[in-house]
Structure prediction request, 430 residues.
Amino acid sequence: MTTPFHNRLFIRNRANLATQLPPKSVAVFTANEPMPRNGDEFFPFRQQSDFFYLTGINEENAYLLIAPDYPIEALREILFIEPYDEVKATWQGEMLDNAQAAELSGVKTVKGSDAFWSFLNDIALSGYADTIFLNTYEYPKYECAIETIQQRFVKQVKERYPMHNYGRTAPILNALRMVKSEDEIEVTRQACDITAKAFRRCLQTVRPGMYEYEVQAEIEYVFKKNNATGHAYAPIIAGGKNACCLHYSKNQSLLRDGDLLLFDIGCELNNYSSDLSRTIPINGKFTERQRDCYNAVLRVMKEITKLYRPGCTINEINEATRRLMEPEMVRLGLFTAEQLRNQDPDKPLYKKYLMHGMSHHIGLDVHDSIDKFEPFAPGMILTCEPGIYIREEGIGIRIENDLLITESEPINLFEGLPTEIDEIEAAMKK
Prediction:
């Protein structure tokens, strides 16, 4: 029911959106719905990120309407929430009332969700809303066969008002969400602090003979103990060769003496994400080969971290990483300098050992609103995550920090967490 955010955050977010809508527009949003799990069970509810960004409301059966040009000021912003249901409250707990919703969101006019369509009808056909802006999740590399409530909502609105013009709120909100407010930065710091605590616990507990799921349990204990909602994404606890599967999440294998263990973990706190990767030796001591590979990744990370300044782009980070990683891979014997000079430019050699991008925005989504060509600006939070994956040797290494862009040097939100080999080995020895 509650949020740690002052409603000034949501008031400001709605105002920023409204200023970017063209004249005679209305923007409408629907909250998420419970997702079926099995039988009569549902997955834990998670609000749609844009809806939370604009309202701070973590409830289902809710709508938001923004009509900046509507003549009646009280109806330029309307939040609709589920009317009180005594049976539902008895079985599922307290329900949000209109006064609470107004306080959380800063929206002065709050109505029951059963009144949404009549209000939208009045505004859409008033002559002050020629264009209806609709919201769905847009991310270039995301595909899902399941139709979301937002997609169904788009169809419903277009069926009701086929003669209107339509616009997309996603491009506007994606751009707004890339730069975080002080409130958002602070909650992200807290999420990173909790994730760092979980990793430190693992440094003290990981040993040969454990299973990956036991390590995951240690992480989840710290997350819950510190009031995090849970994981921001499926955690990767990958021992040995499993680390060469980039999105490995089975977390069922035995941890073997002499292997490395790759973590890619992050808690979600108040709907905001953290994202950390570290690689450690399961027995507490890197082999010579593991040290060489790890230090190669670490050297590249230190160099590209320097580029996280205003004006740089994700695309430039990726290109710089390629240039730095190729000679490191030659030194590691993965290919020769001659092979590098003669490589097919359409099939670069480094991609056999480093297949992913080096950076993404994080925020309400772990892969937050993204434009890899958008210049960095103060207030953006991005990951820095070079890696190397040598399948034939069962070596997978990734090191990842979350970096806050400032006017000058970036701030590492995981500053102080063991990263150097000596630091990791010393922490595991304790």
The first strand starts at residue 25 and ends at 30. The mean pLDDT is 95. The two ends are 41 Å apart (CA to CA). The chain has two domains: 8-177, 182-429.
